[in-house]
Amino acid sequence: MDINRNKKEETSENTPIPQDNRLSQRAEELLQKLTLEEKIGMIHGAQLFQTAGVARLGIPPLKMSDGPMGVRQEFLPSQWKPVGNQDDYVTYLPCNSAVASTWNRKIAYDIGSVLGEEARGRGKDVILGPGVNIKRSPLCGRNFEYFSEDPYLTGELAAAYIQGVQLWDVAACVKHFAANNQETERLWTEVEIDEEALREIYFPAFYDAVKKGGVHTIMGAYNKLYGEHCCQSEYLLNQILRKEWGFDGVVISDWGGVHDTNAAANSQLDIEMSVTNDFDDYFMARPLLKKIKAGEIREETVNQKVKRILILMQKLHMPGVDTSGIPRKSGAYNTPGHRKKALEAARESIVLLKNEAHMLPLKPEKQKRILLIGENARALHANGGGSAEIKALYEISPLMGLKTRIGGNSEVAFAQGYCRDTQEPQDAQESNWQEKSLENGGGTQQNTQNQKTQPDSPASLSKKREKLREEAVKLAAEYDTVIFIGGLDHTYDSEGNDRADMKLPYEQDLLIQQLLEAKKDLIIVMIVGSPVEMGSWIAQADTVVWSYYAGMEGGSALADVLLGLVNPSGKLPETFYKSHLDCSAHSVGEFAGKKSVAYREGVYVGYRYMDKYGVEPQFCFGHGLSYTTFAYTDAKLDFEEKLIGYMLENTGEYDGSEVIQVYVRRAGSRIYQELIRFEKIFVKAGQRVPVCISLEHMNRGDAYCIGSSSKDIRLTINS
Ligand code: BGC
After folding, report:
1. DSSP E strands: which ranges in 401-440?
2. Which of 234, 393, 524, 601 matches a 20 to 30 Å C-alpha distance to 699?
3. Which of 185, 254, 439 for mutating ligand 1's site (highest number of atoms within 8 Å of CB)?
4. Cα of 387 to ligand 1 centre, how many Å?
């Protein structure tokens, strides 16, 4: 990546205000009529998820909602209590890590479009997603909400996703700007990082969201950077976002991310939101009013913010403000079409990690008796994870998915195999963790925050698990096909909560080892939000399937892949380390520091570090198998036209899609290789198709490596 890519593109020293004269004039016209009090009302939360409107002028409030996996349930205006409606169930979409593992821009666009249409259907103006923070460490509790460790993959998918959302006259809100890569002490941690790493690794996805995605709003991050809180940072908001990138949309704080009236007012933040209900006492509420009246802060700072909000309202065609005559689009939620999109995305997101004995796809006509073992075979995940929680219309578990596909002629049995620490389901109805999130310093690293009841004692849990294990192992011997379905849940993958390590919880390693001894051809399926250690059993396992939380149709999609109704085409959007200690954030830098975290690894994040220092991952970035095989031949390069071409042949027996990945190895670069292009290409069994890739830049001496993963490079062409 060109390190100067995001540097000083905009030369204007002025704060960007959209140039569209009509929008600007209308905003000015309204601005003239507003009192200072009314203007102040528009730039801070007047409820937990909305600002104040100005009824006398017909200006509506701006209504916001979480989050990336669907539109969150309705909350009371000033309490973190769900209203308890029966009409706010929604389509539960695959999490962003799942979207990323499709490596498919069209899927990202479709998921964004479902989210946008549902947000509109629920009467929202701003949907608080997507999250595009880089997966710096596998332990960050919110990784499931983020796309990838790679800035290019993240930026490409986020831009498509945003365009999908904004199709519906709803603003996407890309978050959390910037360097927000851990949950531990998230409100206060200061990130120590050099600017080069910011520009190469942590900024590009935000830049792409602005430039390619045309995102209307951006959310600041909780953490500090260069001595400033990100939500009121002169450096991030004024210098980078407005002046360098020319962003003229609306900047919204994270909830409780503002800490000072002067800094917030003078920064390019437009709207302050928080988790408390003392709305008039927010920093950009009464305290700001007083300071303006006392002449300490110029009213012009508020005018600029209000103007941007009024322009946003026009872009969304909000009645009362917009005079274009274009009616605002109406939305819809829970449509059959939305569920179909959720299913398609889930199907493409599943990653086949290992299939050495060709156990998959299953052949139900031969395998009449199937046993699923493990809590995640029946667990539901929608209703957890923090602000990304979803009140799903329904969620198909793997057990349900398989039964609904092959019930009748095949027996599909279930054994629990292991249990969670507490069997109490995550109950968002009673959850008010967000309200308390300002008190506890904003994050932990003990995986305890989400436990609603005292777990059983370790001794009794251990006994219980031993019994479940014995039962499962015994039963396994009696079935033709045994599928272990385990992994994580939102006790581990959660906002406000980093994991302590990558180990599988609930004694699952022991269970898997014993199952493998009893049943060599065990199929292992992981349902997760982030990578787990596999070292104690991976060498013995022939078959491993990976699914990030894949939404309401996740269980159906998994069944389709297991049964071969869908040929898997997902690829890992992140490195799977053998242990978190192999990840550069831990081996070179710091993670989960309380006051500060030193990003000493700089630009060497994910595969950039592994490749450079020759550290072997468990599974590399970009890995993912298919039921078919692909051959790459006849590479050509046209330097003048900046084109790379080759032939891709499906040499197996199944139709399938391959994600072709182009990495550049730049002459003289300190980075070994970087992803610069990817495409997902469908090829019928036995067919051969030409592939042509056009590049923006091509430099003499660079090598272009085309592969099926970052380590499975099939063709290398030198320019
Ligand atoms: C999260 C944001 C979220 C906001 C509103 C914060 O705690 O960091 O991602 O959008 O709450 O729920």
Report:
1. 411-415
2. 601
3. 254
4. 6
Q: Would the CB of 128 count as within 6 Å of ligand 1?
A: yes
Ligand 1 centroid to residue 103 C-alpha, Å: 26
Q: Is the CB–ligand 1 distance for residue 387 below 6 Å?
A: yes
Q: How far apart are CA 429 and CA 76, in angstroms?
A: 12
Q: Tell me if residue 254 is catalytic.
A: yes
- Among 254, 493, 509, 611, which one carries the catalytic annotation? 254
* Helix, strand, coil content of the chain in percent (nearest 5): 30, 20, 50
- Tens digit of pLDDT for each residue in 276-302? 999 999 999 999 999 999 999 999 999
SS3 259: coil
What are the pLDDT digits (tens) for 354-382? Answer: 999 999 999 988 888 999 999 999 999 99
110 lines ligand 1 (CB under 6 A): no
Strand order in the sheet with 64-65: 64-65, 126-127, 171-177, 217-220, 250-252
How far is residue 37 from each of residues 33, 34, 43, 302, 359, measured CA to CA in Å? Answer: 12, 8, 10, 11, 68
Q: Residue 531's closest CA among 618, 458, 594?
A: 618
Q: Which of 205, 245, 198 shows the shortest CA–CA distance to 225?
A: 198
**What pLDDT, in 10s, does the model give residues 632-654?**
999 999 999 999 999 999 999 99
> What is the 254 CA–ligand 1 centroid distance (Å)?
6
Q: Name beta bridge partners: 681.
A: 658
CB 92 within 8 A of CB 70: yes
Ligand 1 centroid, distance to 207 Cα (angstroms): 21
Q: Is the CB of 66 under 6 A from ligand 1?
A: yes
Q: Whole-angstrom Cα distance, residue 258 to residue 279? A: 13
Distances from the Cα of 486 to the Cα of 276, 468, 503, 555, angstroms: 37, 14, 12, 13
What is the reported pTM?
A: 0.95
**223 in helix, strand or coil?**
coil
Query: Which atom of ligand 1 is closest in space to residue 175's alpha carbon?
Result: 9
Residue 654 near residue 628, CB atoms below 8 Å: yes
The set of residues, in sequence order, having a beta carbon less than 8 Å from that of 300 and lying 6+ positions away, is: none
User: Is residue 173 in contact with ligand 1, taking CB distance under 6 Å?
Assistant: no
Q: What contacts 24+ positions apart, CB below 8 Å, involve 35-39?
A: 36/289, 36/292, 36/293, 36/299, 36/302, 37/289, 39/302, 39/303, 39/306
Atom of ligand 1 nearest to the CA of 173: 10
Determine if residue 592 is left, alpha or beta; phi over 0 gives left, psi from -120 to 50 gives alpha, anything else beta.
Answer: left
Q: Whose CA is nearest to atom 12 of ligand 1?
A: 387
